[in-house]
């Protein structure tokens, strides 16, 4: 399938690693035209139906660009996956490696959990849990650096690179565009660590389906109350929803990645991922104003996504 990402057509891949390149796309299209797909729905019709939200999100971002709310030098990535249907609904610039900011912190936690699973010397005790909660809920940079040091001490003593190595040793298919090379510097201006929206999507998919060590604990940590941008102050969400997430904020990046869970009219739960990243090449002159404005952009996209999910699943 092909997506229109901020006006750029790019190939997309789903969370199971399936990739449909241009040759396969054209082959499938030709097969549809020739009737080789039998009684199955039209490939084009299915793509249009499944990815209508993708186009809506892209159109919204383009309108915000024309209004100057999102600047021409700012790049965005968006990803939405519906757990109820197993469909990727939005994949815009999903595989572009972007600054991670504090969204790298759940990855640091996952690296430690791998070590706690595979080594008797590594324990998940109260002290570590306390630092984890500060890192995820409070976005504490000192707690993050403390955990990076612990992961490194248990591996090669190469610092943050040991976190990346631990992740890619055990789950290279998830952390494909992840790059972890620095601790959080004084002042919190961390710009070197990177990941893609697709990495976050695969990670969230894995912890939601208990496919990673300590998945339940990671969900607990990410569900602790915090100042998210995907549910809080989203206009269409009139009552509290369950959200497991992590924000990222620097003078060059505003982001949020998480899982939102809501109920339908029958009380059944429906969950989906919502990932939004806005990145600029230089530091914003007014950090507070910029991060608030771009946080509201993510809220607008999340609002659009929620309304789509509400109509799709009859959410209340």
Structure description:
With 316 residues, the chain is α+β, with helices and mostly antiparallel strands. Among the domains are: 49 residues, no CATH class; 94 residues, no CATH class. It has ten helices and nine strands. The protein has a five-stranded antiparallel beta sheet with strand order 4-3-9-8-7, sandwiched between helices. It has a two-stranded antiparallel ribbon with strand order 1-2. Strand 7 and strand 8 form a beta hairpin. Helix 4 runs parallel beside helix 6 and helix 4 crosses helix 7. The radius of gyration is 20 Å and the shape is globular. The N terminus is likely disordered. InterPro entries: Beta-lactam/transpept-like, Beta-lactam_cat, Beta-lactam_class-A, TAT_signal. Its EC number is 3.5.2.6. Belongs to the class-A beta-lactamase family.
> Uncertain spans, ≥5 residues at pLDDT below 50?
1-5, 7-14, 16-50
Order of helices and strands: EEHHHEEEHHHHEHHEEEH
Note the beta-strand portion. 15-25%
Write out the strand line-up for the largest beta sheet, numbering strands in chain order: 4-3-9-8-7
